[in-house]
């Protein structure tokens, strides 16, 4: 009988990045185990890397290559323009990749990541946190049995107005690149593959997407990180001849997604079989985003 992934030694994961997302999500999730252990942290700011590593009993790597030498897999919590070239280096070093979304700052860099993963034959997985929540899995299972005529969705919050996330690429690129992967992934998975996409508005304020799906259904998505709300609002409504199906982020907190995300990544590393949420899926989402940014 084949041993279960939980019977295997924990996967040794190195973390690239020491910002808010690394501090609040990646490091505590990976260090909590039991399927993974956080071995080392590297960041462009050595003092931030030391602080985060010290909080979780990990080493501080002096370079990405030193981090690669200490681990089996690499997790990324850095801006997309930083992630893409480092992910290529990690793949070439034979490391499994736990990738943030989007894969890269643009479609070309996302393609280089996906191609590097394919050439190296390494396991990859996307941190699309909402996909690892049991409520999301139940919603997608119900959607697979439904005939959907149309869908409405939104992902709205005010994090770009102030706070730790109101910096860098999120402010310059806006909601389409940051929030778009989550919502487009859910629509593509629940309604059916998206064939065409049109965008209107300003991604730095509010952008509206109209998606035409291969099965003839039409969906709409509203995205903004610049509206003041008591809490983030993310919702998908599927409508057709049957009963309405809904998914709401109010029942899909990040922490509740950690156990499944961690266990599925560890299983993928140990078996060599990636989940469907891999770099190829990330490239597919980036292709959809590119449709929305064309003139």
UniProtKB/TrEMBL annotation:
Keyword field contains Acyltransferase: no
Keyword Oxidoreductase belongs to the record: yes
Domain GFO/IDH/MocA-like oxidoreductase: 140-240
Pfam families: GFO_IDH_MocA (PF01408), GFO_IDH_MocA_C3 (PF22725)
Cross-referenced InterPro entries: Gfo/Idh/MocA-like_OxRdtase_N (IPR000683), Gfo/Idh/MocA_oxidrdct_glycsds (IPR050463), GFO_IDH_MocA-like_dom (IPR055170), NAD(P)-bd_dom_sf (IPR036291)
Residues in Gfo/Idh/MocA-like oxidoreductase N-terminal domain copies: 11-123
Keywords on record: Oxidoreductase
Protein name: Gfo/Idh/MocA family oxidoreductase
Taxonomic source organism: Actinacidiphila polyblastidii
């Amino acid at each position: 009988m084949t041993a279960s992934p939980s019977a295997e030694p924990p996967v040794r994961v190195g973390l690239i990045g020491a910002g808010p997302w690394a501090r609040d999500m990646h490091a505590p999730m990976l260090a909590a185990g039991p399927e993974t252990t956080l071995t080392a942290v590297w960041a462009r700011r050595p003092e931030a890397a030391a602080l985060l590593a010290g909080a979780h009993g990990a080493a501080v790597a002096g370079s990405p290559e030193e981090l690669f030498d200490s681990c089996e897999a690499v997790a990324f919590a850095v801006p997309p323009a930083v992630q893409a070239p480092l992910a290529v280096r990690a793949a070439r070093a034979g490391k499994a990749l736990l990738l943030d979304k989007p894969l890269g700052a643009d479609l070309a860099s996302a393609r280089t990541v996906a191609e590097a993963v394919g050439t190296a034959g390494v396991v990859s997985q996307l941190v699309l946190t909402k996909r690892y929540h049991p409520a999301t899995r139940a919603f997608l299972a119900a959607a697979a049995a439904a005939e959907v005529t149309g869908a409405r969705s939104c992902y709205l919050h005010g994090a770009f107005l102030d706070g730790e996330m109101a910096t860098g690429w999120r402010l310059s690129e806006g909601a389409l690149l940051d929030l778009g992967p989550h919502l487009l992934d859910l629509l593509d998975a629940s309604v059916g593959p998206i064939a065409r996409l049109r965008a209107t508005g300003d991604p730095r304020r509010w952008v509206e997407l109209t998606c035409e799906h291969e099965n003839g259904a039409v969906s709409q998505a509203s995205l903004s990180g610049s509206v003041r709300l008591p809490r983030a609002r993310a919702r998908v409504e599927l409508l057709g001849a049957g009963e309405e199906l809904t998914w709401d982020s109010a029942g899909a907190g990040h922490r509740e997604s950690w156990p499944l995300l961690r266990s599925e990544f560890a299983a993928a590393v140990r078996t060599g079989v990636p989940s469907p949420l891999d770099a190829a899926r990330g490239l597919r989402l980036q292709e959809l985003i590119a449709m929305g940014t064309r003139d």
